[in-house]
Write a structure and sequence with these properties.
The chain is an alpha+beta fold. The protein has a single domain, classed as Creatine Kinase, Chain A, domain 2 (2-Layer Sandwich), CATH 3.30.590.20. The protein contains 17 helices and 14 strands. Strands 1, 2, 3, 4, 9, 10, 11 and 12 form an eight-stranded antiparallel β-sheet that branches. A two-stranded antiparallel ribbon has the order 5-6. Strands 7-8 form a two-stranded antiparallel ribbon. α7 packs parallel to α13 and α16 packs across α17. The longest helix has 24 residues. The protein is globular.
């Protein structure tokens, strides 16, 4: 029996699950005490970013990433052998910290690009790969082997965590992961279909945990409008489709949301299952309660239960939080950023946004999100009066229709509106408020927000992609040919200095 199979078998052992859940409950009780006592309060707001991408070769085809790239490029591994992630370390949310954050994102992407370039590869700042390897999408996603009863996907990172998750979800799904979206019905013996999609995830550290529910609940009500400005994944790989032009209109603008939900949720209705739009919070401790109550997937026991770093003392809880898949979630335990040198923090992880085409676009979206959340709460904006169901429905409408979504909003005057102009006016007004409160000058704020604010006319990445496919179809291309042409045109521009609004 090889080490990978042994690790997966340990994860599926009922005794491991029992011990894991016992540790999670004990760690959660300590976290609740730390929240109530103020130990997770911090001196300042802080911001950070996770950015996912995939690698392509000289022919723009999806390509596996050698381990040497991760060793030299400062990036992390993800589910697929073609996936990578770069993180910008957290900075204080003030003028200097924002500038440092932008520099860190750019330098991290540059370092990854240089390491990939040494291998004849390039990073694709994109939300879904559509040009498959030479063998095709079905072969790439469907190549699995069984080792002593453990299913191992060939193109998945052979890390015990990923393989254990794969096997657990596969079992819960009846032995097959299915994806049914306009124009395509796929089925595989692995969750690797999830590796089609990549995202950016802004983080916001909240100084007072007592106020955390205000920020969290406001975040939920911003998801639809923000996603309507950022959607970037309307198509699966070109070889998944027959030649049917109607798919261009039918396919969601943000296909990566159903890809993730369907690959994990085992047939649960939209909005239900393990991956979903989360409920409102009443208390900061609800963050902890929800992780404890969530179903345990692929448990792993830490070798020890101690360490100087706070997160080193809550390893089982942290592992379970990592598979508590909600489109916004609370993250406990990061070291505070700013004047505090010890302790821990509580932050919002804003998860539904697709990877953006350029670093400038990425920073712009990050500033919109963190500025907006800070500005809404500082102004005591009544947005949280919007019913939760309306916020959820707005989010899923933005998934489907991108910039044409039916938006749902409560204005600063307490009036309900679905007018996009009114919604976007407030979106950027309160993002500016939050950035000003952080100490940024108006001229700097305008420069940061401009790339995404200029998308108010509908020039979002997904709309650009659909328009290019329609043009190719008009020129006589088949749908798969049109998607291929669009993707190559996208990759020629992505990663450059020109923001998508100028494409």
């Amino acid at each position: 029996m090889d080490d990978l199979v042994a690790a997966v078998e340990r994860s599926t052992d009922p005794e491991t699950r029992e011990a894991f859940d016992r540790r999670v409950r004990a760690q959660a009780e300590r976290i609740r005490d730390d929240i109530r006592s103020g130990r997770l309060d911090t001196d300042e707001f802080a911001i950070g970013m996770e950015l996912e991408a995939y690698a392509v070769d000289a022919a723009d085809r999806l390509a596996p990433i050698p381990d040497s790239v991760f060793e030299r490029g400062g990036c992390g591994k993800e589910l697929g052998v073609h996936n990578l992630e770069v993180n910008s370390a957290a900075t204080v949310f003030d003028a200097a910290g924002v500038a440092e954050q932008a520099d860190r994102i750019e330098s991290s992407v540059d370092a990854a690009a240089a390491a990939l370039g040494d291998e004849g590869l390039a990073p694709a700042l994109d939300a879904m790969w559509t040009i498959p390897p030479a063998g095709g999408t079905d072969d790439y996603l469907g190549s699995v082997e069984t080792r002593d009863g453990v299913v191992v996907a060939q193109n998945m990172r052979h890390h015990p965590r990923y393989v254990a998750l794969d096997n657990e979800i596969l079992e819960r799904s009846g032995g097959e992961i299915t994806l049914d979206v306009p124009g395509a019905s796929l089925a595989y013996r692995t969750i690797l279909v999830e590796s089609l999609a990549t995202s950016i995830q802004p983080h916001l550290q909240i100084p007072s945990v007592e106020d955390f529910p205000d920020y969290f609940n406001a975040a939920l009500r911003t998801l639809g409008p923000v996603l309507s400005l950022t959607s970037n994944s309307p198509f699966l790989p070109a070889d998944c489709y027959d030649d049917d032009a109607d798919i261009v209109d039918a396919t969601p603008h943000e296909l990566r949301i159903p890809v993730f939900e369907e690959s994990i949720n085992a047939g649960a209705p939209r909005g239900e299952g393990k991956v979903r739009f989360p409920d409102d919070l009443s208390h900061a401790t609800d963050v902890v309660d929800r992780v404890v109550a969530d179903e345990t997937y692929a448990p792993v026991l830490a070798d020890d239960e101690g360490g100087e770093n706070y997160r080193a003392t809550i390893r089982e809880y942290d592992h379970k939080r990592g598979v508590h898949w909600r489109w916004v979630r609370g993250v406990v335990g990061g070291q505070p950023v700013g004047s505090a040198t010890r302790g821990a923090s509580l932050r919002i992880e804003y998860r539904p946004l697709p990877t953006q085409p350029t670093v400038r676009d990425t920073v712009s979206v990050q500033m919109l999100v963190v500025g907006l959340l800070r500005g809404l709460v500082a102004a005591d904006h009544p947005l949280t009066d919007l019913p939760w169901t309306d916020a959820r429905d707005c989010f899923y409408d933005a998934v489907d229709r991108g910039p044409d979504a039916d938006l749902a909003w409560i204005t600063a005057d307490g009036e309900r509106t679905a007018d996009p102009e009114a919604v976007y006016d407030e979106l950027f007004r309160f993002a500016r408020r939050g950035l000003r409160d952080a100490g940024l000058d108006d001229e700097i704020i305008d420069a940061y927000l401009s790339p995404v604010e200029r998308r108010r006319d509908g020039t979002v990445p997904s709309a650009w992609k659909k328009a290019r496919v329609r043009e190719a179809l008009t020129d006589g291309a088949t749908l798969p040919e049109a998607i291929d042409r669009m993707q190559r045109a996208y990759l020629d521009r992505a990663g450059g200095e020109t923001v998508v609004a100028d494409w």
